[in-house]
Amino acid sequence: xxxxKRCEEKFQELFGAKPTANEGNNPEFMRILQRxxxxxxxxxxxxxxxxxxxxxxTVLAVNQTLPQLKAHTGACLHIGISPVEIRETIYxxxxxxxxxxxxxxxxxxxxxxxxxxxxxxxxxGEAVTEETRCKEGLAIQNSIYxxxxxxxxxWLPDEFAEAVxxxxxxxxxxxxxxxxxxxxxDRELMTVVILAALGGAEAQVRRHVEGALKVGNSKExxxxxxxxxxxxxxxxxxxxxxxxSAELLS
Length: 250
Fold this sequence. Notes:
Blueprint: H1 3-15, H2 27-39, H3 49-62, H4 66-78, H5 83-91, H6 94-97, H7 99-115, H8 133-145, H9 148-152, H10 160-176, H11 184-198, H12 202-214, H13 219-233, H14 235-244, H15 246-249
Helix pairs in contact: 1-2, 3-4, 3-5, 3-11, 3-13, 4-7, 5-7, 8-10, 11-12, 11-13, 13-14
């Protein structure tokens, strides 16, 4: 099957529609985009449609490409991804892109949910309490990364030497990584994609590639995730992520 036929097949799977032909003001560009993404990239590597679409909405949230996030949230629902999985994928971005950008993305997915008759708010996904969040966060963090962060930032002045590592532990590993709805394997793979899409976070990309491998992702799955993210984040960020992780992924 050639890439034009594959594009038509994948577009139907994801969106329940046909790719554009000569519609709009830029039909040539849309043909290049759709045939490359849906006719080539989507057929490269082992990841299934579920994981590919979760990767896609991750990159779109990071880059705040909100019209495309709306379309791909619809695709997620169309192929059977649960609203909770979509929500958790977007929530997962917050420690890396900040709360305002995450709120923008949440507004988009909530709009799609409402259009599809999905009642909001969704079921509660919290897994820690105020009393347990530090302990639970440390349990997840230490099992994957040890005490690297707290050891590294002991030089910070006064209360910051304690506060900065604790903020990471309690915010990322407790408030988000411990939540229900996505498993640790998926969350670590998404984190690699988030960091790659951000650009300029290659040290963190490498560290989280190590973490993603440790929790059960294969080298091929990580490479596939980064390659799938490439049309949405650009080739330079793919190469940066691959280059900084080459020793781990080769």
